[in-house]
Amino acid sequence: MMAAAAPALRTAAGLLFAATVSVAAAATDVPRGLDLYMPVPDDNPLTAENIDRGRRLFNDPRLSRDGTVTCASCHDPQQAFSDGRPVALGVFRRTGTRNTPAIINRGYGRSFFWNGRAGTLEEQVLQPIQDPNEMDMTLADVSARVGFTPDQISRSLASYVRSILSGNSRFDRYVDGDRAALSPAEVAGLQIFRGKARCTACHVGPTFSDEQFHNTGVAWRAEAIVDDGRFAVTGKERDRGAFKTPTLREIARTAPYMHDGSKATLEEVVNFYNDGGRANPNLDPEIQPLKLTVEEKRALVAFLKSLSGEIREGLVR
Amino acid sequence: MILIALSEADANLHGQSGYDLFQKALATERADGDLRGAIQLYERMVKQFPGDRPLVASALARMAECYRMLGDAQARRIWEQLVRDYSDQKEATEAKQRLATLEGAKPARPLTIRTVLSTTGRGPDIETVTADGRLGAGGDSSTGDLVIRDMSTGRLTRLLAGSLDPRSMGAGTAVGRYVFWTVFSPDQRQVAFARYGDPENPSQGQLWVIPNEPGSRPRLITKHRDYRNIVPRAWSPDGKSLLAHIERLNDGWQIAWISVADGSVTVLKSFGWIEKPDYFLTLSPDGRHIAYSALVREGSQESHIYLLSSDGSRETVLTRTAGISDSPSWSPDGSHVVFVSDRLGRFDLWAFAVRDGRPAGDPFILKSDVTRIVHLSTTRAGVAFYGRRDVARDRRSLISLVPLGVTGEPQAPSAKIAGANAAWSADGTRLSFARSRAGGVTDIIVSHLHTGEERAFTHRGLQPRKPSWLRDGRELLVLVVNDDTTRSLHRLDTVTGEFNEVLQFSPAVIAAGGGALSEDGQTLYAATRDEAGKPLDRIVALDLTTKMQRELIRIHDRVIAGRVELSPDGNRIAVRTETREGSRTGETAHLLVVDVDGGDPREVHSDMRVAVSGLAWNARGDSLLFAKRQGANRWVVQSVPAAGGSPVDASVVFDAQPNELDASMDGSRIAVSTTETVHEVFAIELPPLSSGKR
Questions:
Q1: CA gap B89, B58 in Å, rounded
Q2: What is the DSSP track for B565-595?
Q3: Which of A13, A19, A175 is facing B257, going by the closest CB pair?
Q4: In this structure, are residues A143 and A153 in contact, taking their beta carbons and an 8 Å threshold?
Q5: Whole-prediction pTM value?
Q6: Is the CB of B222 less than 8 angstroms away from the CB of A176?
Q7: B252 in contact with A at a CB cutoff of 8 Å?
Q8: Mutating which of A37, A43, A239 best tests the B interface, going by the most B Cβ atoms within 10 A?
Q9: For residues A183 and A170, what is the distance between their CA atoms, to the nearest angstrom?
Q10: What is the model's pLDDT at position B365?
Q11: What is the rounded CA–CA span in Å between residue B67 and residue B77?
Q12: Digit-coded pLDDT (tens) for A73-113
């Protein structure tokens, strides 16, 4: 009964509220599984001009000091806006310290970067440009090169990033009533995801992220936390080694995993959580040994792979 | 804006300390939401940098704003200070405007609250009223029926029959089909409702619609294995879609449109476990905006009102004041959002002018001290219907003191006291019990029965659990829920009022109610489970010093229900158990007694056919008292020998289920705690509210 229902209602809702449909709704067709409401700052509404300019800037090598790196170099549309490397590679082949996050559905985000040091996308998009290990530019230099003010660059890139959406996965179709969309193993995996494995303690909602920071022990090496994570932002000891919950959408296309890219496969990730993460003084209490069987782990990975869907970016024409 | 005022020159002049302090205060105010902490920092700036007028003016302006958000009148004093002493600073201009707004806010004319419905016990509720005010609708909590009520005559029409077992009503325990959350269509010809108790999936909420004509057949709009609740809150103006609040299984909450034609769902906004939204979201009369309330942050008791455009394109937060702001509704012309808020320390009815989904003025009080109410419906004529929080239900707790040991006719209570879960002191002169007050705060009361004097003790997170007297006759064992959701048992000294923590524990392992404390205060007897999620199946003796556990009872085919009761001599404990099914219907009774030193438990009484509630030792410790259901609304207190035997009636009869029992030490009286369900619906005639007018 509910198969293919959501698009039908979207049309109905669109007609019903035609008088109030905003630029946001008009400019992007929201894929199934995501909320229609996406928070957009009042002072940077989603306009076609901004999205289009942001798209061009996103692919513009002039944003990097040596002219070899674009935003898309690390956030490759062909790899679900991630880069397939353990850690990012910047100008002059300088390497960063963390895994490039897949910037899909970030318009729904509440804080940005693995440690949440940016509170808005407008703030976030300017930081890689200035990071010596990424693009290594000053805003003044970039502004001179591309002919836009830093404020225009910020608003445009943020608008473009908001237009990058992933949804309409087989999981979404299953939730919308298409019971054939997932295989029996994937359905079993979904039940494990929500039940025994307690993944929804953190990977919750349309983006599969609670947008909070958790210490799973990935940063605990040789009896020490090797990356402070959220602590660098809050200064609170309990946040040392905590990182933002990443989205699980498109997870099959965004290996390697974890904030440091230390897990090459989903199987490794599941094994890590099955073992209860890595014990350390700040380990999140939600992280506990799961006692999953081999079959359950296999089903869980199968389910995670069903979260690959359709990625849309830029204006829907 | 404020930061601009702190010019580079200023910052350099004072080093970075003033600027840094201001940044820290802003972060405390905005990022942490700690308004009082921020006020302290702003005050520090005013004292440390008196010569930096721009900085001090900025700090004062922020301080005033913090006070305003706290509902504290000191905001006015600071704005006056800014106008008087800092007229050269730009903050003075805004302060003037703020003061002018205050002056212009005339006291609202008194509104009357008319009680439309007031009944006790189970029965038909009013959950929604038609736009013309003629009809109300709601579920019947005794039958599960969908009932239409003529609001002028009171005549009831049962539109859809339920099959609810009234004994089982309660969150997650209801048996049978029943209706909840009703809402009339704009043309009043249909009623949408949530329906529960599908035999194939009893815990699943379903969305149905039925024509408002007797004999009509309901139509299932949608059901979903992932949905625990689908709560319809409004129809779109064209009647084609339902605005609903969806609670997903293990996956948070959503605001969504649901097509009446095909049940398809379009999610407008999702919420994780962090900011649970209120059920009471409402649609503006023109259908363009949704007002809803949601918690401010994880674990917070505070809530804000938000305006979400009904196409999902925009959202605005309407209230930013500390405290609870919830139960939003719309004035008939859509020019104001009316809501309930405790921002001034009591629950008042407020209104906020809005235009195009944004605030268009400062909030003002419509009616003071309306208590904790929730909006049901507003008619076109501006009559707003409200019920008590929890959908027109209020639960009043009563303690009845009834003569014990008398045979023959049921005895009338010799006294009734407002409160719950009473326990007698050993000398029989005092009664300790719990009493709730506004805001969900629980006090523990000690009442001197001869003088009538009462003394209240309070502690953050105090729970309305039966406060057990310790053997010294001075201290009570009480339960506290801590901020991190763990529980703590405290010894409350009724002379000094001091609380001393005895044990902190996780309710996932030890029964949430705690347990009973031995005479020497060293051992806690408590019901536990092996791990979270497992049934409570063990009674252990926990040494509070060594934290060593000794298992006294392990049961295999049942679960432990209710409290662990220690005998007056401190040598035995009694517990009540029930089957898993019995925990849903209460249809089993099984009483066990075991020596605190160990040994096999003795089955004192077993009756698998009836529901049992409460458990207490008699004064001599040779019998156990409990309440047994005898009919739908009749409960009889019975006594059974602790060594086993047949129970006998104690001539104490109630028409409501007793929660707790406690016999006085001289055996002459029993304190019976019951909860009475009260249905109350109020009508408030809103004053004319339109744009630009109050």
A1: 9
A2: EE-TTSSEEEEEEE-TTHHHH---EEEEEEE
A3: A13
A4: yes
A5: 0.66
A6: no
A7: yes
A8: A37
A9: 10
A10: 86
A11: 10
A12: 999 999 999 999 999 999 999 999 999 999 999 999 999 99
